[in-house]
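Most newcomers find our protein records easier to grasp once they have seen one. Read left to right, the backbone structure tokens trace the chain's path through space. Nothing more is needed to start thinking about how sequence determines fold. An example says more than a description, so a record of this kind follows:
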Amino acid sequence: MTSNSTPIINTVEGPVQGVVESEILVFKGIPYARPPVEGLRWREPQPVEPWKETRKADTFGKACLQPTYPSMDGAGSVGPQSEDCLYLNVWTSGVDPGALKPVMVWIHGGAFKIGVGSDKIYGGGPLARKGAVVVTFNYRVGLLGFFAHPALDRELGPVNFGLLDQIAALEWVQRNIAAFGGDPGNVTIFGQSAGAESVLALFASPLSRDRSPALFHKGIAQSPYAIPEQTRVKASELGVKVASGLFGLSGANATAEELRAVPAEKFTEKLMPTPENPLGQVPFLGPSPVRGDTVLPTGLRATFEAGEQARKPLIIGSNSDEASVLEAFDMDPAAIMQMIIDAGGEDAENALEMLKGLYRSDPEVTEEDLKDPSRFAGLVLRDMLFTAQARWLADKHSKVADTRWYYFSYVPEGDRQDQPHGVPHGGEMMFPFGGIKPRFTAADRAMSEKVSKYWFSFANTGTPEGEVAWPKHETGGLLMRDKTLKLGETIEVAYDFRKMRLDALIAQYPKLEAALAAGAGSRGGSR
């Protein structure tokens, strides 16, 4: 049920009036930055022009420009698109400025290439009913969000424009969220996939981690991945190729004015399909951001290794079948694994047997899994790209702040036949939001309630609360053991979860980075 009998909220920029949906106040399509068009394309987000008349906040803003591909995980229709796309949405149970409700700011995923903050799976109603103020937003993606070129380099500007949009959205929260009943002093950022990478980037960036007052106070990173960032030099080289191949300009000699005059529809086009690129995918800088600009002077792993990230509480984890996303990253699991083995200069057969030895004692891995090259490669890359990355980051962050690590393996009962290998990449997202699907069983609904309770209570107090106490992850001491909350049919704490295997895979990260830098397994040229 929707109603427009809602209070008018006076934001710093101007008054807005939302709607009531299922007894929750929803404010849609509030601009948080000036439209990044024409001369503002590939520039830092600029302040919104203030307005005086009440703005109807009853319609979501348009998605940022993006092409879609059948193989991209989650790449369905995002609705109307526009280069004018920097809008956010707020869900709240009440707008009492004295309520000081915890604020949960969601950052959508999509490989920094696709996605929209208004996707129905991100609906904030259930969390708002628990007592949170929920914010979702769009940020520039693809070539409009992450782009470098010699002409722009001469302006000495950034490359990670999408991350700057995220910072601008958090600045809006600081200015305005109290008017919606939220506490600007208790903001949790959370996101999945590229959204999780964004959470970590905001923890790492000197533009967001050390702000006073703080832009955020806690973070939740769902399924971040161990895919290294592009360098600024590589980003500029790719920009030259795009300028000539997609925009029809003179490559490195294109001017900033010419680049900013490229018609917006060019950014939704695809290339002519080829055998090497059957989907006609346009090169882009994802699925990780770029290192070497003012936003990310160094990479995420280097920042966390040095302990220079924000010293704020963090939840981090991954799912039981993350390899499902490799197709979306244009990666062939078997090809990547072979490249990793080759990068080590080892005997391939012995290296493969060593890897299989890490899995033979796992009761969840069958002999058929070990014999099937694609399936086995998927298991290894699930752990190397996701499970081990979450463990490594938890290890590093636990040295500077409270850290909790989870492993999500609960598959909805009606999906188990179609998902025999576990929870796919993104398959957990509905649960933290407390959402339900029409085919959810009583057990599924109960699990959604349990998971959203952990997430909300963490946002509220900094301590996730649930039917099983979730201990802090600690490492480094003689008596300290890895602690993982396993969110499966049974919720339980695991000690030293897959420790020997993950230790061995973490030791292989230099080979992984070398393989990915060489473009292992790429089908569409997206790296």
Remarks:
- The chain has a mean pLDDT of 90.
